[in-house]
Amino acid sequence: MRKKTGRYSGYIRPFSYVLDLIIINILANFLLPETLNLIGYHFFISISWLIIAWNIGFYEVYRYTKVIEIFSNILKQYLFFLLINFAFIGFYLKFSEPSKMIEFVSFSLILVSLAKFFIYFSLRRFRVVFGGNFRRVVIVGNGKSVTQLGDFFNENPDYGYKLEKVFTLTPNKKEQIDECFDFVLENKIDEIYCSLSDLSNSDVNKFIDFTDNNLKILKFLPDNKEILARNLIFDYYDYIPIISLRNIPLDEVANKIIKRIFDIVFSLVIIIGILSWLIPILAILIRLESKGSVFFKQKRNGLNYKEFYCYKFRSMRLNEIADLYQVSKNDPRITRVGKFIRKTSIDELPQFFNVLLGDMSVVGPRPHMVSHTEMYARRIDKFMVRHFIKPGITGLAQTKGFRGEVESDKDIIYRVKFDIFYLENWSLLLDIKIIFLTVINAIKGEEKAY
C-alpha cells in the first residue's frame, strides 16, 4: 500500500499559521503605541487570532473552495479580530487612539489576505504547469451530473483532479463494478465518485466496503440532492453537489494540532517523569535474566499503512518467531521480568518515544505486526479503515476488553468496530477518558494482559 503523495495541505496550513502570526505581531510592533507592545498583548493577539480562525474556518481552504467564500471568511476574521482587540484595550487600558487599532487590524488583514491568495493561486498554477498536487479520480454512473462532473474535472485542471476514467453502468452492473475496482487498484486511483441514482443499496455497500478495505476516498454524486440517513459531509464543486461518505474529525487541521500538542505534552511528561529513572532499573533487571537488548522493536503499520518501528521493553527471550506469532497465555518465551511488565503494561511505555517522533498517538487504534495486518486485511471487513488515523498506545477497543491475543475472529471484528467508532467520533475528552480507563485497568489487572 503506497503512501499518499502530492497533497501539501498538511505542510501549507501550518506554514500559513506561522506566516500570519508573524505578520500581525510585526505590524502590532510598528503600528501600535508602546503601551500595547508587551509580551502579554502579543500572546493575546496570537491566541485570539487562532481561536477566531478555527471557529470560522479561516484556514479551511480546499482546492474546490470558491474565491467568494475566502473573501467571506476574511471579512469575518477582520470584524471579530477588530472587536476582540477593542474589547481588550477597553477592559485593560485607557486607549485614546482607536484609529491606530483600526489601522493595525486593517493592514494585518490586507497582508494576510495577499499571502493567502498568493498561496491559493500559486497552487492552482502549479497544478496546471507542473501537473503536481493532483488526485487521480474515476467516476461511476450514467446521469447528467456524471457528465457535468467529468467536464468540470477536464476543464478545470487548476483544481488538481485528474479524471482517469468514467465507468458507465449497464443492466449488467456487476462486471463493470468489478472492472472499476481492478482499475482503481492497478492505477493507484485516489478517489471514486459514484452517482447514487445508478446504484442500488447493495451496490453502494460494495463501494463502501471496497474503499474502506483499500484506503480509498469515496464520494457520492446526488442527481437530486438526495441526503442519506447518516452524518455525511455536503460540499459543492463549482455548482455540482458532492457527498462525502465518512466524516473523520482528525482530518480537520485544528483537531490535528490539538491532538498533536496533547501527544507531545503527555509523552514528555511520561518520558521525563517516569522513563528517565525506570529505564536504568529495567535495563539491569532485563539483562540479568536474559541476554539481548533492553528494548524490542518491531515493524508495525501506521497512518496510511506506512510501516514504522514500534518500541517496547523486551519481555521475551530472543527468538526467531517474534515477528510471526503473538504471545499466548503461559508462553514459554516470556521471562519472569517480562511477565510482570506485560501484566502491568509497563512494557508499552517506550512507545511514548514513538509518539514524540510522530509515528503514533497516545490514543488510537492499536497497531499490529505487519504479517498480521496483511492477514486481517484479507479476512476482516473494514480492517484497513483503522489506518486513516495514527495508531495509539491505547485505544477504545482496549478499554472494552479487546486487547492482547486475538483468539478468534470475534476479537478482531470488535476491535475494528470500536476503532472505527473512535475515528468517527474523536474528541479530546474521549482521549482523556480512554487514558483514565487504561490506567484503571492496568492497576486492577486484566485477564488478557499476559
Distance between the amino and carboxyl termini: 32 Å
Net shape: flat
| SSE order, one letter for each helix or strand | HHHHEHEHEHEEEHEEHHEHEHHH
Binned, the helix content reads 40-55%
Query: How much strand content do the residues show?
Result: 5-15%
**Structural domain count:** 3
Secondary structure tally, helices:
14
Structural class determined from secondary elements:
alpha/beta
Pfam family, one: CoA_binding_3
Transmembrane segments: 12-32, 38-57, 78-95, 101-123, 264-286
GO molecular function: undecaprenyl-phosphate glucose phosphotransferase activity
Family: Belongs to the bacterial sugar transferase family.
Describe the 3D structure.
It is found in: Membrane. The protein has about 450 residues and is an alpha/beta fold. It folds into 3 domains: about 10-130, no CATH class; about 135-245, Rossmann fold, CATH 3.40.50; about 255-445, no CATH class. It is about 55% helix and about 10% strand. The protein has 14 helices and 10 strands. The chain has helices spanning about 10-30, 40-55, 65-90, 100-130, 145-155, 175-185, 200-215, 255-290, 335-345, 350-355, 370-380, 395-400, 410-425, 430-445, and strands spanning about 135-140, 160-165, 190-195, 215-220, 235, 240-245, 295-300, 305-315, 360-365, 390-395. The protein has a 6-stranded mixed β-sheet with strand order 2-1-3-4-6-5. The protein has a two-stranded antiparallel ribbon with strand order 7-8. The chain has a two-stranded parallel sheet with strand order 9-10. Strand 7 and strand 8 (about 305-315) form a beta hairpin.
